[in-house]
Amino acid sequence: MLVTLRILGSDLSEVKPRETFASRFGFLAAMLAYPSGMGTMTIVAFQAILWGGGSFWIWFFLSYLLIAFPVILADSAFGLSTRRANPLAWKKISGDNKFFEYFGWVVPIGNWIWNPTMLVIFGIYLDYMLNAWQGERFWTGSPGAFFWGEHLMTFRPIAFGLVVLFFVWLVSYKSLNIWARIMIWLKPLALALVGFLIVWNILYNPVFWQGWAFSFNFRPETLLFPMIWVQAALWVWWRCSIGAGPATVFASYLPRGGDITDSVSIGVAADMLIIFLAGLFLPSMLVGVKIPPLYGGATGLVFSGLPRMWNALGGTGLVLATLFYFIFIPAGFPSIVVYNEQFGACLMDKLGWTRTKTQTLLAIIAGLLIVFYGMPIYDALNGESFGLTLIFTQWYWWSIYAGICILIELILLFKYFKPHRVVEIVNESSSVKLPKAFRYIYYVSFILVAVMVAYLFIATSGLVPGVPAGGAGTMFADGTGYYGLTPLGIGIMLVQVLPVILVPLLLVPRK
Amino acid sequence: MKRSSALANLLLGVVLVLTISPTAAAQVVNIEIKGGSISSMTPSELFVDTDYEIKVKVLDETGNPVQGAKVGFSIAGGAVSIVGDSLATTGSDGVAILRIKFDEGGVVKLLLDESTVDRVFIYYQSLPSLGGSLIGVVLILLSGSLLYLIYAGPVKWYLEERVGK
User: Fold this and answer.
1) Which of A134, A288, A304, B26 could be bridged to B51 by S-S, CB 3.0 to 4.6 A?
2) A50 to chain B: which residues are within 8 Å by CB?
3) Which residues does chain B have within 8 Å of residue A287's beta carbon, measured at their own beta carbons?
4) All structural domains of chain A with their residue ranges
5) Architecture of domain A36-507 in CATH?
6) Against a cut of 0.95, is the pTM above it?
7) Rg (CA), chain B
8) ipTM of this model?
9) Could you tell me if B113 and B149 lie in one domain?
10) Which domain covers residue B74, as residue numbers?
C-alpha cells in the first residue's frame, strides 16, 4: 500500500513528451466542445420562465461574459504557461503549494465522476432517438408515468449508456487529434439543427411568440433581485464547470502560434447562442400544444414533457422527436469527451501512463459507475430509480461546488499568477488582443461570485426575508442531497463525495 | 395665457374625460366544474390586462350544484400575478364569482377547496415590446460577434495556411 502511494504521489510528468494539437483548429474544437450539454441547453429557457424572464437571461449572459469568459481565459493561460494539466499546473503556479495541487485534482475528478451520470442520461437519449419513430407505442400515452415508473426500471439505461461510453472511448483512446477533428463539426451541426427547429416552429406554430413572451418578457425592476442573479449564474457555472476547468488541459496541448482569445470567444459566443436559440423553440412548441412550460429539471422536460408534445403533434411529432433526441450527439456528447480528456490528461501527466492505457482504465471504471447509476431499483421516496436519484444528487452537490471552485481559482490567480499575466500570455498567442484593463474583470468576477455564493447559503438557510428555508430554487434546497445514513445517503457518500475528497489525497505527496 | 388659467383648463379637461369615459365592462368567463374537473370554459383562453368576471359553477358528479365550495386561482408559474379576488365561495346555485385581472402571462392553477382542478394559461395579447427588443438585441449581438470572431480567427487561419502552402 505504501509503495502504491509513493508511486501515485510521485511526479512522472517529465517522462513522456507532451501531445499537442495538430493545428490551432484543435484548441478551437476543444473550446466548441466545451462548454456543452443537453440538459443545460434545454432547461435554461424554462428556468427563465420560473425566475424573472428577460432579467434572468440578462444575468445569464452577464455571468458568461463577466465570470465564465475571463475564468476560461485564466484556465487557458495556466495551461499555456505550464504545459501541464490542472493539478501540476496549479502546483507549478503556486510554488508547490499542497492545497492548490490538491484542489487541482478535486475538480477534474469531480467533473469526471459527473460523466457516468451523463452517460446514463445520454444512453436514454439514444434509446429515445432510436425509438422515436414509434411514438406513443414506445413512450405510451402517459410518457411521465412510463419514464419514471417503467423505463427506469429496466436495464436499457445501462445498456445504452455503455454504448455511448464505447464511442467516448473510441474517439479518445488513440489520439488527441481524432476527437478534435470530430468535435470541431459538432457545435455548428447542433446550431444548424436547433435553427431548423426554430424555423419549423415559426412556420407551423401560430402562437410561437407566446413562448417567447413567457421566457423573455422583461421587467427592468426584476434585474435587482439577487435570487435571479444567483439562479442565472448557477447554470453558467455548472455548464462551463469553471474553476480548474478543462481549458487548462487544452491550452497545454496548444502548438506554437495557437490562438487562445479567439477560440475561447468563439466557444463562449457559440454556446450562448445555442442556449438562446433553444429558448426560442422549446417553450413555444409546448405552449403551441397547450402544455404548460413549467419545468424545473431537464430530465422531466425531455423524457416526460416533450413526449407529450410529440404525441400531440402526431406524425410530424415523430420526425421532430427523432431530430430533437439526435441533437444530444452534437450538443451533449462533446461535454463527456471533454471531461474525460481532462481527467485522463491529469493522470497521464502525473503517472506517465499512455493514452490508451489511461482511457481504457477510465472507460472500465466509467462502465461500472454506469451500472451503478442505471440500476433498475425503485426509489419509492422520489418515485424514480435509485440510480437517477443519485444522478440528481450528484448534480446538486456539483453545482454547489462550482461557485467555490471559481473563488479558489481566482485566489490562485490573485496570489500567484496575477491577472495582468493572463492578459499578456493570451495576447502573445492571439490575433484578437485584449486591452490591459481586462485584468480588472477578474476582481469583478470575484466580487460577483462571492456575493452570489454568500447569498445562496444565506437564502438556503432561510435568513433572507421573504425567501423560506429550502426555497432557494430548483437546483438548490429542493431536499436533494440530504439523506443521512440511508441506503441513498451511503450511496452518495461512496460514489460522489469520498472519491472526490480521498483520491486527490493519494495523488498529492505529503512531503 | 397665464399659467394659472392653463392649469385650470387642464384640470377641467381631465374632469371631463373622466366623466364622459365609459367604465370598461369586465369580460364574463363561464367555467363549469363537474365532479372535480373542468367540463366547460367559455371563452377557452384568458389574456393579460383584461378585466374578467369569472363565474365558476361547481357541480357534483350527478350534476347538482355544490354550495359553500371555495374556488380560486393561484400562480403555477411565470411572471403572472393576480389582481382582484383570488378566492370566492359558491352560493346555493353552485356559482362563485371572481373579479380578476392578470397583469402578466403565465400559468395559473384553478383551485377547488384547495385542490388543483386544472392549470390555465394566461396568454399575452401580443409579444411584449421589451421582451421582443431583448430577443432582437441578443440575436444581433450574439450572431454578429460570432461571425466577426469566425472571420478574425478560423477564416484568416485557413487563408494563412493556404497562402503558406
Assistant:
1) B26
2) 77-78
3) 121
4) 36-507
5) Up-down Bundle (1.20)
6) no
7) 27
8) 0.89
9) no
10) 3-123
